[in-house]
């Protein structure tokens, strides 16, 4: 089972890319102008060069982030190599931040699940309409920024990251009476779809809209050849955890970041 989980972690590096990345002795240094730890952290899935000490390997990564003017961040997973890295970073004044659950589900049976949910909520959700774009647009970015209450810079940072990603994508928006109420991004990587930026407008939450939207997205992924889908959710985001549990997602592993506390 761990091999499947590691495959999901490797897929997530592809579906949520970095603007710049380079390999250093098995690790992947990811740099993206500071937007999101996902795209600005060291991925530590492979063993380092046996001729390089762990201390020198860490110092090399620190130098790259300092050169870029960015905080030094390592992404830690159950697959981190070497296994003692987390403790070594702790000793070097790295703080744990943003513990996150990675959840996954099979897409088998999604059509029937969707049909049953649609029938059970037809009285309240029948007026929803959906659009899927395979390329980001200014309109989608503006809608996402408004619904997520982001500054414009965040939406454009996401667009910039997605622009370097050549994988198939779905930018979904949900409308109620021509008013955008929710949106999400799905990114396909062969057998998997990564789900990102699930956003429901504050006035439209807890009405079943996000659940219906994700069913639509999962149907789209299955129609494009995916067999599994996965997402990441913050450890303390109980509303989202409850939503995903209701959609059949199960936790497969957790990750966290180690962030250097500069003196």
Question: What's a concise summary of this model?
Answer:
This protein has 263 residues and is of the alpha+beta class.
Structural class computed from helices and strand pairing:
alpha+beta
Radius of gyration (CA) equals: 19 Å
What does the largest sheet look like?
11 strands, mixed
| Uncertain ranges | none
**Total E-strand runs:** 11
H/E element order: HEEEHEHEHHEHHEEEHEHE
* Total helical segments: 9
Q: Roughly what percent helix?
A: 25-40%
**Assembly level:** single chain
The strand order across the widest sheet is 1-2-3-4-11-5-10-9-8-7-6
- Please, what is the average pLDDT? 93
Distance between the termini: 41 Å
* Gross morphology: globular
- Percent in strands: 25-35%
Question: How would you describe this protein?
Answer:
The chain is an alpha+beta fold and 263 residues long. The protein is 37% helix and 31% strand. The chain is built from 9 helices and 11 strands. It has helices at residues 2-15, 54-68, 85-91, 110-120, 122-125, 138-148, 152-163, 209-223, 238-246; strands spanning 20-24, 27-31, 42-43, 73-76, 94-106, 128-133, 169-176, 179-189, 192-200, 228-234, 250-260. An 11-stranded mixed β-sheet has the order 1-2-3-4-11-5-10-9-8-7-6, sandwiched between helices. Helix 8 links the parallel strand 9 (192-200) and strand 10 (228-234). Helix 4 (110-120) runs antiparallel to helix 8 and helix 6 packs across helix 7. The longest helix has 15 residues, at 54-68.
């Amino acid at each position: 089972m761990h091999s499947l989980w590691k495959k999901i972690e490797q897929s997530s590096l592809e579906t949520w890319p970095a603007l710049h990345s380079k390999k250093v002795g098995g690790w992947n240094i990811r740099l993206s102008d500071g937007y999101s730890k996902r795209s600005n952290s060291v991925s530590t899935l492979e063993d380092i060069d046996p001729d390089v000490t762990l201390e020198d390997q860490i110092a090399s990564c620190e130098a790259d982030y300092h050169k870029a003017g960015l905080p030094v961040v390592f992404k830690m997973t159950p697959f981190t190599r070497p296994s003692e890295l987390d403790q070594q970073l702790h000793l070097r004044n790295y703080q744990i931040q943003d513990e996150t659950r990675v959840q996954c589900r099979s897409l088998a049976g999604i059509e029937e699940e969707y049909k049953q949910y649609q029938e059970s909520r037809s009285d309240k959700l029948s007026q929803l309409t959906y659009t899927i774009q395979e390329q980001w647009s200014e309109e989608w970015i503006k809608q996402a920024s408004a619904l997520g209450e982001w500054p414009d810079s965040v939406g454009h940072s996401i667009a910039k990251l997605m622009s370097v990603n050549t994988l198939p994508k779905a930018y979904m928006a949900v409308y109620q009476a021509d008013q955008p109420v929710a949106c999400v991004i799905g990114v396909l990587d062969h057998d998997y779809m990564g789900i990102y930026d699930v956003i429901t407008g504050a006035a439209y939450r807890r009405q079943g809209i996000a659940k219906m939207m994700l069913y639509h997205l999962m149907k789209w992924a299955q129609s494009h050849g995916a067999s599994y889908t996965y997402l990441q959710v913050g450890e303390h985001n109980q509303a989202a955890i409850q939503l995903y549990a209701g959609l059949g997602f199960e936790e497969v592993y957790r990750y966290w970041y180690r962030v250097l506390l500069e003196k």
